[in-house]
Write a structure and sequence with these properties.
It is a single chain. By secondary structure, the chain is an alpha+beta fold. The protein folds into 2 domains: about 190 residues, Ribonuclease H-like superfamily/Ribonuclease H (Nucleotidyltransferase, domain 5); about 110 residues, TATA-Binding Protein (2-Layer Sandwich). The chain is about 35% helix and about 25% strand. The chain contains 13 helices and 14 strands. The chain has a 6-stranded mixed beta sheet with strand order 3-2-1-4-5-6. Helix 5 packs parallel to helix 7 and helix 6 packs across helix 7. The relative contact order is 0.14. The structure holds zinc ion. Zinc ion binds next to loops.
């Protein structure tokens, strides 16, 4: 079995809808939790997106990709040699293999569709009876795997994923094992598509977590780039939320958040900063007549946690 992990640039704000891979990491193991027989580590120099998404910007190994990365085609060929016809794979979540296939297709290379791949994240949640949004570092903490290696390095994360899999009961693993088909790969990366001009964030376990998220609340003045965070959201329908901040030099800046939930019950947001036009100010006034959600002010503990573990790439930010 091979455990795969990727680091990538989700290319928010970019015209091309591709999660561009920056690092491919993998370990070959006899079984989950078993001895590591071989490792794979390939850094890729990005050439699709011009800008890095906030998640990619904080990757600990970013410089390796940008300065010493190899072209995708080269790393992908080495990967094919490494997997040597393997048919069983595992990963944290259900995105990385699809992303690898999509990157291959982008460069006109033939993707490999595993006969079986196990989503360790979902198996972990099944085993605990929880919701499917545990982060890798949380699962490692829970299983008391020592955090010897920095997270968000694809090779390290593959190692952690393989180890965590060793703690999980067979039934939970079996229920989280699927084939990967061409249709899965060609369907959108997530049921909620990216929309032009907006930034998608999620998944969030609850509505409150989404509305309190500092990224969702972040409003940047278009004139001077001053950044403030929305303190109160207003909504009339519980789906579209509007909030405003004040730039001392340029007046109000409006933030719009659209809240949606996916088939797993997790919440996603589409976020947009709007200029204070008459139309937008009227929309804000209307929303203010509805329900108000006051954001919580506990910033310290979250910021500290993020510094310790770094931030996860696109899929889990
Ligand atoms: Zn300003």
């Amino acid at each position: 079995m091979i455990v795969l992990d990727l680091e990538f640039n989700s290319g928010l704000y970019e015209p091309e809808n591709l999660d561009e891979i920056l690092q491919v990491g993998a370990v070959r193991v006899d079984r989950l939790g078993g001895a590591v027989r071989e490792t794979f580590n390939g850094y890729i120099k990005p050439r699709v997106h011009k800008r890095l998404s906030p998640g990619a910007r904080v990757l600990p190994e970013l410089a390796e990709s940008l300065e010493r990365g190899r072209p995708f085609e080269e790393v992908y060929r080495a990967w094919l040699t490494f997997i040597a016809g393997e048919t069983e794979f595992a990963e944290w979540g259900r995105d990385d293999f699809k992303i690898l296939c999509r990157n291959a297709l982008h460069y006109g290379l033939e993707p490999v569709f595993p006969e079986k791949y196990t989503d360790i994240q979902s198996a972990f949640s099944r085993a605990l009876g929880g919701v499917n949004t545990a982060q890798l570092y949380q699962a490692a903490e829970y299983c008391r795997v020592p955090d010897t290696f920095v997270f968000h390095n694809a090779l390290h994360d593959a190692l952690y994923t393989g180890l965590i899999g060793g703690f999980l009961p067979e039934e939970a693993l079996a229920e989280s094992t699927f084939p990967l088909t061409r249709e899965d790969v060609l369907s959108q990366p997530h049921p909620l598509r990216k929309r032009k001009g907006t930034v998608r964030m999620g998944p969030f376990l609850t509505r409150e977590l989404a509305l309190n998220n500092m990224g969702c609340r972040r409003a940047v003045c278009p004139e001077c780039r001053r950044t403030e965070h929305v303190a109160n959201w207003h909504t009339r329908d519980g789906a579209t939320y509007l909030g405003a901040v004040d730039c001392p030099d340029h007046g109000p800046v409006i933030r719009r958040l659209k809240l949606m939930s996916d088939s797993t019950g997790a919440f996603w947001t589409y976020n947009e900063t709007l200029p204070a036009t008459d139309k937008n100010l009227r929309a804000l006034a209307k929303a203010s007549a509805g329900e108000t959600f006051a954001c919580s002010r506990r910033k310290g503990s979250r910021a500290r946690r993020r510094n310790r573990h770094g931030k996860r790439k696109g899929k889990n930010t």
